[in-house]
Amino acid sequence: MPLGLYSAVGWAAESTVDWVREEPKAFAQAREEKRLVLLYLEAVWCHWCHVMDERTYRDEKVRQLISEHYVPLRIDQDGRPDLAARYRDVGWPATVVFDADGREILKRQGFVPPEPMARLLQAVVDDPSPEAASRVLADVVSSGSEAPEAATLNESLRQRLIARHERSVDMQRGGLKMAQRYLDRDSVEYSLRQAALGDDVEAQRAKVSLDAALALLDPAWGGFYQYSTGGDWRHPHFEKLTAIQADYLRIYALAWSLTGDRRYRQAVEQVIAYLERFMLSAEGGYFASQDADLKPGEHAADFFALDDAARMALGVPRIAEQRYTRETALVAEALAIWYEISGERSALDRARAACVWVLAVRSRPEGGFLHLSQDDTTPYLADQLAAMRAFTQMYKVTAERSWLKEAGIAAKTIEQHLRASSGYLAAPRGSSVIAPVAPIDESIALARALNRLLRYSADPLHQAMAEHAMRHLSRPEVALARFTEIGIVLADEERQVAPLHLTVVGGKQDPEAQALFAAAMRQPAADKRLDWWDPAEGPLPNPDIRYPSLSRAAAFVCNEGRCSTPLHEAGEIADFLRSLDQESRPISQ
Questions:
Q1: Residue 355 region by backbone torsions, left for phi larger than 0, else alpha for psi between -120 and 50, else beta
Q2: I want to staple 527 with a disulfide (CB 3.0 to 4.6 A). Which of 126, 166, 499, 580 is the partner?
Q3: What is the pLDDT of residues 187-222, one digit of tens each?
Q4: Are 44 and 11 in contact (CB under 8 A)?
Q5: pTM score, two decimals?
Q6: How far is the C-alpha of 471 from the C-alpha of 467, rounded, in Å?
Q7: Beta 554-559 vs 104-109: how paired, if at all?
């Protein structure tokens, strides 16, 4: 374990509020005592959560009001993906008040000082009517209306989403035109894909954000800080979330692949170095987060300005020891993507180890994956989705069919437990007093993950799920709910536009076939499907193209409904792709 690693339990500054930590217990107590429930949804890595502990919940008036009228419920949002999904746009800390039956009355974002908190608590006691925003959320959660029939964006909605994307990117400073600056993964990926098609404006959009976000890369330890405030990149919040490291690893890997910019490769290498040094558990899996503060509640800018030796002399900000399925699987997927792009064998080894750990330690006996432990067997969408993504990517880069099977099991778990009339819920309905929602971020990621899985499985269930997810995202009230959500366009395009498809035909133990598959993986492409057909294993899981049986290993490049003649040398793959636009090589149908 790294120096300075402390248990996440009990680290937050102790207040005199007698917090309940279990949701069912809190609501049962509220019903019995005819009280309201005050939910303090915290993040264990969050600076302002520490400040709220120290100031707000030590205030005498606040404590008195809570004691007289509320059941105080405190939950770490990392431990409850369903609540994190429901209140992600509120941010942490989130203050939410419910009646005893789980009806939301109000919610507040961020740090609430003592006096406003006391006034808020008294106002709810005086009038426990739900605020307008809470009524709207309740209507969305309880809605039984079906999504549109079409499992695709209509052209008008597509153009509105593209226009929002174009307006949202700050072309001078990078990032989105918001007070918080961070690398929006879907926005940058969309720009990179359009740039690969020759769109110079989108190329600039990607570059300005990729370059600017490097300011959030920790120069001493590696890894990316979560975001910067003030509308610029000079005021970072220093927490490092493992899920965010996976996002940055994946996006900068794709950026390096498509642009060749050495700085992007260095960013990937620094993220991996950070994860291995600080976040990789010796027992397997990846820790969830690293705190923003060295001392809870004290801003740590001076600490993070130090070099490695000076920091280590003072200590290491607390690393939460929880190893969730979601975080470990997201890292596994990102590492496997880096292996595909770079050929770094150590990345594949780490990805495989993480996936094996998830299967060994976090599997539910009835299928799917636990979030943390056997104490909570709820199959959360975030965990099943991350595992499905990781296993699909592992199949892509290894052609080992066991990974495709595991991805299918994760998808089936989502369908069995999380399907709603519109989209998929963050947790099974009825698993919590607080009703789950169909979260936009996970819905986009799920639609895209199902698109990728379907390419390899050809399973009608996966097709039906992808269509169901896309119908939800195609609802205008969902698609236009945020400032920009270009990821919906990505999901829609991936359903309709076939990726570059490269297939190797030959034995898995054949050195020539192995060299061809390695070369196929290395080919840069914004979207790519890889297959390896070893006739000894029987037909491919998705035998949508008939390949000839040959006396020696060969690769085939398929694009826009056409496939190349057999390519027997690794270098021929790149040569053919370079000549594809000129159509100088014979094409066979």
A1: alpha
A2: 499
A3: 999 999 999 999 999 999 999 999 999 999 999 999
A4: yes
A5: 0.94
A6: 6
A7: unpaired
Q: Strand pairing partners for 107?
A: 96
- Per-residue pLDDT at 137 exceeds 80: no
Phi and psi angles of residue 284, each rounded to the nearest 5 degrees, phi first:
105, 150
- DSSP letters spanning 143-181: --PPPPS-SS--HHHHHHHHHHHHHHB-TTT-SBSSSSB
Q: What are phi and psi of 89, to 5 degrees?
A: -75, -15
pLDDT in tens, 267-323: 999 999 999 999 999 999 999 999 999 999 999 999 999 999 999 999 999 999 999
Which of 526, 422, 392, 385 has its CA nearest to residue 151?
A: 422
pLDDT of residue 557: 96
Q: If 0-12 CB within 10 Å is exposed, 13-18 middle and 19+ buried, where does residue 359 land?
A: middle
**Both tokens of residue 264?**
């992007």
What is residue 44's DSSP assignment?
Answer: T
251, 239 Cβ separation under 8 angstroms? no
- Residue 485, classified by CB atoms within 10 Å of its CB into exposed (0-12), middle (13-18) or buried (19+), is buried
Q: Tell me which DSSP letter residue 217 carries.
A: B
Exposure string of 62-88, with b = 16+ CB inside 10 Å and e = fewer, is: bbebbeebbbbbbbbbbbbbbbbbbbb
Distance CA 483, CA 247 (A): 20
Instruction: Give the span between the Cα atoms of 202 and 255, in whole angstroms.
Output: 13
Cβ contact 456:542 at 8 Å? yes
For 451-467, how does the pLDDT look when each residue is reduced to its tens digit (9 = 90+)? 999 999 999 999 999 99
Rg of the chain over Cα atoms, rounded to whole angstroms, equals 25
> What is d(CA 536, CA 519) in angstroms, rounded to the nearest whole number?
22
Cα(522)–Cα(499) distance, integer angstroms: 15
End-to-end CA distance of the chain: 56
Listed residue (477, 50, 438, 33) closest to 237, CA to CA: 50
Q: Is the dihedral of CA 296, 297, 303, 304 positive or negative?
A: positive
Residue 420 and residue 475 in contact, taking contact as beta carbons nearer than 8 Å: no
